[in-house]
Design a protein that fits this description.
Elements lengths: L2 H10 L14 H13 L2 H5 L13 E3 L5 H6 L1 H13 L3 E6 L26 H16 L5 E6 L3 H10 L10 E6 L1 E3 L1 E2 L6 E3 L2 E2 L1 E3 L5 H8 L2 H7 L3 E6 L10 H10 L3 E7 L9 E5 L2 E5 L6 H5 L11 E10 H7 L7 E5 L3 E2 L5 E2 L6 E5 L3 H5 L5 E4 L2 H4 L12 H10 L5
Parallel strand pairs: 2-3, 2-10, 3-4, 11-19
Antiparallel strand pairs: 1-12, 5-9, 6-18, 7-8, 10-14, 11-14, 12-13, 15-18, 16-17
Bound molecules: uridine 5'-triphosphate (UTP).
Uridine 5'-triphosphate binds next to loops.
């Protein structure tokens, strides 16, 4: 893109300030800025015009989960089914590790966090350890795709290489990079990270399948004939990955997707609840629930909307393929975004100053025709590390790890 083309485009979009420092940049800086401008998906910024549109929820009903007691009864047949699917090479894994972990405040990829106390034990290492238990049972490794972002890709790859992939076969691990989208201030103006660079942030955890397509890595999925993908977050240190029981239960249910869920700790706990919306699976965020819904109870005293998702899903690949042509909804989050001011001075805001735009994996559940909620025991499988201290922190996760006999 030439300077003139960029100027014309930005004038039309009322974003000419992006070129404010252009004349003072060296040629590499000018080139970088022009290529960034060219790559902008303007639909992202345009979505701001719908920011305050009311969210019209359809008819919400509870969706029955397959509960721990039922899983216990059927565990042998579930395990058999799941192990066979792993052995037949039908299952692949996607680790969502492109986030910025701003709440934790680590200046490197979250997976590089040392969760050990008397020894080094990294978050990535724990995930591989958890995975190896299941692949050892199945007797075969499972293709493992790791999504990073431009911001943490090099560090992540370097970390895996320098730790010899934590003993997982290297040929079964691949990395791919998710897209970045621009950030704006509250007026919808693009924020600048430096005179030659627009502030960009990863486009959320819902675009992973599209990113796999864009990076060409989907060819590998197709070539290997994978039929299911288990996708999960980087920060739940206790989670089971390639879990034969979960795979078996999902296959047995006949559903096109499955979601690991935990029983809510309290009616207003801040988790998204897997429900039905107009007959289709849907995740209703805690802040979207009325008090009446959140507190509603069944005759047996259990909460009617009782199961929260933990970002560990199984999706059938043929269904994911249909999502490639669909537009994922964009969610707008208010965040603190470091940027430069009109004079080129770096500003580190102390309160939120703009918007980031994200797709969410939970919308992929909404795009599936059905989904089986699969209950896991919270204390055994849910230890997310989100915050620097307090709830869902390294400290709370370490306590749960100890409770599960993990030496720290
Ligand atoms: P979170 O929503 O907790 O976001 O991500 P985060 O970026 O890790 O942390 P905060 O909100 O900035 O503190 C849930 C999962 O989705 C991944 C994260 O890496 C994590 O595994 N994720 C999130 C991505 O892969 N890409 C994204 O753009 C956002």
């Amino acid at each position: 893109m030439t300077y003139q083309e960029a100027y014309q485009l930005l004038e039309e979009k009322e974003q000419l300030h992006v070129l404010r420092f252009y004349d003072n940049l060296d040629s590499a800086g000018q080139e970088h800025l022009l290529s960034q401008i060219e790559s902008i998906d303007w639909r992202v910024i345009e979505s701001l015009s719908h920011k305050d549109d009311p969210v019209n929820k359809g008819n919400i009903e509870p969706l029955a989960a397959i509960e721990v007691s039922e899983i216990e009864e059927k565990k042998d047949s579930f395990r058999q089914l799941g192990l066979q699917a792993l052995l037949d090479g039908k299952v692949g894994l996607v680790l969502l590790a492109g986030g910025q972990g701003t709440r934790l405040g680590l200046d490197k990829p979250k997976g590089m966090l040392n969760v050990g106390i008397t020894k080094e034990l990294y978050l990535f290492e724990m995930l591989i350890n958890n995975l190896k238990k299941n692949t050892n049972d199945a007797g075969v490794p499972v293709p493992f795709y790791i999504m990073t972002s431009d911001k943490n890709n090099a560090d992540t790859i370097e970390f895996f290489e320098s730790h010899n992939y934590f003993g997982y076969p290297k040929d079964f691990i691949s990395f791919f990079v998710q897209e970045l989208v621009p950030c704006t201030d509250f007026q919808g103006k693009l924020l600048m990270e430096s005179p030659s660079s627009i502030c960009m942030s990863p486009n959320g955890n819902g675009g992973w399948y599209t990113s796999m397509y864009n990076c060409g890595i989907l060819e590998d999925v197709r070539k290997r004939g994978l039929e299911w993908i288990n996708v999960f977050s980087v920060d739940n240190v206790l989670q089971q990955i390639a879990d034969p029981l979960f795979i078996g239960a999902t296959l047995d249910s006949g559903c096109v997707s499955g979601a690991k869920v935990v029983r809510k700790a309290a009616p207003n706990e801040g988790v998204g609840v897997l429900c039905l919306e107009n007959g289709r699976p849907s995740i209703v965020e805690y802040y979207e629930m009325t008090d009446e819904m959140a507190n509603s109870r069944e005759e047996n005293g259990e909460l009617t909307y009782n199961f929260g998702v933990i970002l560990n899903y199984l999706f059938r690949v043929d269904v994911l393929e249909t999502m490639l042509s669909a537009d994922m909804p964009l969610h707008i989050a208010t965040k603190k975004i470091p940027h430069i001011d009109d004079n080129g001075n770096l500003i580190q805001p102390e309160s939120p100053n703009g918007y980031k735009f994200e797709t969410l994996a939970l919308d992929m559940v909404r795009m599936s025709k059905d989904c089986i909620p699969y209950e896991v025991v919270r204390e055994k499988e849910f230890a997310p590390i989100k915050n620097a201290s307090g709830v869902d922190s390294l400290e709370s996760a370490q306590a749960l790890m100890r409770q599960n006999g993990i030496k720290l």
